[in-house]
């Protein structure tokens, strides 16, 4: 039930492992810290990582009258979460489904979950542009505002895939809010010096060429890796790090 959701943000990436789920969860957690009512929907059916990233792996979905009640991260119910991970018996269970079954699960996530009056629903999508993305797009017609954030790493090979994400958004008519470059250099937690491990600037130049907004560079920061599994916002735990600055700027831009 998306009738009362004001804004949907899809988080897309061309490849897996570039930090899409980290960006999705940190965006949701930052919005919650700023006082917004947020939902986080994980439609990466074959590799759901949101329950782990938010330390909610032991949680289950409850059935309300004709709908599913999402899992809430907090007592105040400011952050509602839904993932196929909550429906699996074990974290190691594999979802081996063909397209139509995936399509129907995603429809249920959008139509049958009691999302209530969210300010933002963040959707963490699988890498690439597959059935899952098309199904989501087809079901977002009634949402007043909908946009996409693209996540990439600086390497050329990841950048090439991002072009396909941009084309997908343009073909389906979803406005691109901008592009985030993750893992851009290594930031030393002690002295904050940044060492460029991979090539640099690929995300920024792709954004310029594609005429989309560049939303910032997040360095490889072991403290960000360590936040995974805790369900805590970087802006709260590490207010002075570069990652927090990127998320603060991003939210000011919304
Ligand atoms: P994806 O959703 O694109 O597959 P994840 O968000 O799951 O990627 O990130 C992959 C791994 O990299 C995770 O272990 C995550 O904690 C780690 N990671 C992501 N971004 C950073 C970063 N900026 N600094 C350090 N570790 C990161």
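^ structure tokens above, recovered residues below v
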């Amino acid at each position: 039930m998306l009738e009362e959701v004001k804004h949907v943000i899809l988080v897309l990436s061309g490849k897996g492992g570039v930090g899409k789920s980290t960006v999705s969860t940190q965006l949701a957690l930052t919005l919650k810290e700023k006082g917004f009512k947020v939902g986080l929907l994980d439609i990466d059916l074959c590799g759901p990582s949101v329950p782990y990233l938010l330390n909610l792996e032991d949680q289950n979905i409850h059935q309300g009258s004709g709908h599913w009640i999402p899992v809430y991260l907090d007592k105040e119910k400011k952050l509602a979460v839904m993932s196929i991970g909550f429906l699996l018996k074990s974290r190691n269970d594999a979802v081996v489904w063909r397209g139509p079954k995936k399509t129907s699960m995603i429809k249920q996530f959008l139509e049958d979950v009691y999302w209530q009056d969210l300010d933002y629903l963040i959707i963490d999508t699988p890498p690439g542009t597959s059935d899952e993305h098309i199904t989501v797009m087809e079901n977002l017609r009634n949402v007043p505002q909908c946009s996409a954030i693209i996540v990439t790493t600086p390497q050329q090979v990841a950048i090439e895939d991002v072009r396909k994400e941009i084309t997908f958004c343009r073909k389906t008519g979803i406005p691109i809010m901008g592009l985030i470059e993750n893992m851009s250099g290594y930031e030393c937690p002690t002295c904050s010096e940044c060492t460029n491990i991979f090539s640099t600037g690929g995300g920024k130049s792709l954004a310029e060429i594609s005429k989309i907004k560049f939303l910032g560079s997040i360095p490889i920061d072991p403290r960000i890796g360590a936040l995974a599994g805790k369900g805590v916002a970087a802006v709260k735990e590490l207010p002075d790090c570069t990652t927090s600055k990127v998320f603060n700027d991003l939210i000011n831009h919304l």
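The mean pLDDT is 89.
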